[in-house]
């Protein structure tokens, strides 16, 4: 029985928060607790949990998860669940490495040898995406995702939606599938119009047509279109997810493993979604540890659909990308729209600790961008 000896965290560019757990036998595991725009809050939560969890049995992953969830009185939400994700992923990595097997072997074994993936094109203010989509096709992708619109008012000119339709058509003309992310920035009067305008052009899915704080509105939009509705990045536990499954308003669930308490909760949410015939396509515009954790769970998940990758995403600036911070970045090579399942122990990636420590020195917390409307009002980003 190995006890947790140290828990460390590292803020690294472009906007990630890595967690390292070491037990008293020298075994190591890595996790990712990234919560975009709220790094300091997650670090504060980790500070409190480090004091509590050092000395606990590193093998008792579920006990530590339940301790985090049930003994805090206040629970759930993005900050707590992102901090917990960092610990949970690191503990799974540590345990699997100690046993010399991939994490998926501890979750029941794999059901696939490769995973379908997609990448982003465009940015927060999307423009001409055809050239970017061609570049993604040249990289081996067969599917991409793009933001649907720039910022919009509650009621905007219908012409503000025309560009989205044109961009969807341009990318599909290359023979690629396209998910369109409304990003929660489109309010219901416009979202209804955009969903129907896109439908004849068959997007792969529309994502966050409304914010998840508007479940009745999402249900209304789901009844207006046959396009699959995807959402879930701003739901932080199985209890958050359940009402959308029960209402039948989500077709593709997109939980973020770094925002929902890690591998343990991702496995539970995926199984719950399967009972409603809902596919899982994990949200992951984050770092290599988070992506590797998703891959380990999705390797075991029957209702897995497609995996988001942050390779070359517009947020990755300053030289750091998905291929940074590891000794084996070749695991992210895309071929025919798929990546191969990693076969190494633990997460299947080998973290370059020297690089992590070097880039964490003086690293600034990422600040979420935002939109200001023509009247000076704050708009949804």
UniProtKB/TrEMBL annotation:
InterPro entries: DgoD-like (IPR034593), Enolase-like_C_sf (IPR036849), Enolase-like_N (IPR029017), Enolase_C-like (IPR029065), Galactonate_deHydtase (IPR023592), Mandel_Rmase/mucon_lact_enz_CS (IPR018110), Mandelate_racemase_C (IPR013342), Mandelate_racemase_N_dom (IPR013341)
Annotated GO MF terms: galactonate dehydratase activity; metal ion binding
Alphabetical UniProt keywords: Lyase, Magnesium, Metal-binding
The name this protein goes by in its record: Mandelate racemase/muconate lactonizing protein-like protein
Top-rank lineage group of the source organism: Eukaryota
PANTHER family assigned: D-GALACTONATE DEHYDRATASE, D-GALACTONATE DEHYDRATASE-RELATED
SUPFAM superfamilies listed in its UniProt record: Enolase C-terminal domain-like (SSF51604), Enolase N-terminal domain-like (SSF54826)
Family matches, as CDD domains: D-galactonate_dehydratase
SMART domains: MR_MLE (SM00922)
């Amino acid at each position: 029985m190995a006890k947790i000896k140290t828990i460390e965290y590292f803020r690294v560019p472009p906007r990630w928060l890595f967690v390292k757990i070491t037990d008293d036998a020298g075994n190591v595991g890595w996790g990712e607790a990234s919560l975009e725009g709220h790094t300091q809050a997650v670090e504060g939560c980790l500070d409190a949990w480090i004091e509590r969890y050092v000395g606990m049995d590193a093998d008792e992953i579920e006990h530590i998860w339940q301790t985090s969830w049930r003994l805090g009185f206040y629970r759930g939400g993005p900050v707590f669940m992102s901090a917990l994700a960092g610990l949970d992923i690191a503990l799974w990595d540590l345990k699997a490495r100690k046993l010399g097997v991939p994490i998926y072997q501890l979750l029941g074994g794999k059901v696939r040898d490769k995973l379908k993936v997609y990448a982003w094109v465009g940015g927060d203010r999307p423009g001409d995406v055809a050239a970017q989509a061609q570049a993604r096709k040249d990289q081996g992708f067969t599917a991409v995702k793009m933001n649907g619109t720039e910022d919009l008012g509650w009621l905007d000119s219908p012409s503000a939606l025309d560009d989205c339709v044109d961009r969807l058509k341009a990318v599909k003309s290359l023979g690629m599938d396209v998910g369109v992310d409304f990003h929660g920035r489109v309010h219901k009067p416009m979202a209804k119009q955009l969903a129907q305008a896109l439908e004849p052009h068959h997007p792969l899915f529309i994502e966050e047509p409304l914010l998840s704080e508007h479940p009745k509105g999402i249900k209304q939009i789901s009844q207006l279109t046959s396009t699959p509705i995807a959402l879930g990045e701003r739901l932080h536990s199985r209890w958050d997810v359940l009402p959308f499954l029960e209402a039948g308003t989500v077709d593709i669930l997109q939980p973020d493993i770094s925002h929902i308490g890690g591998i343990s909760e991702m496995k539970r949410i995926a199984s719950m979604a399967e009972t409603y015939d809902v596919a899982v396509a994990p949200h992951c515009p984050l770092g290599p540890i988070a992506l590797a954790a998703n891959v380990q769970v999705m390797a075991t998940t029957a209702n897995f659909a497609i995996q988001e990758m942050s390779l070359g995403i517009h947020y990755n600036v300053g030289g750091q990308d998905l291929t940074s911070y590891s000794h084996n970045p070749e695991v992210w090579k895309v071929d025919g729209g798929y990546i191969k399942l990693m076969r190494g122990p633990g997460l299947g990636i080998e973290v370059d600790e020297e690089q992590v420590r070097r880039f964490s020195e003086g690293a600034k917390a990422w600040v979420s961008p935002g939109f200001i409307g023509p009247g000076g009002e704050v708009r949804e980003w």
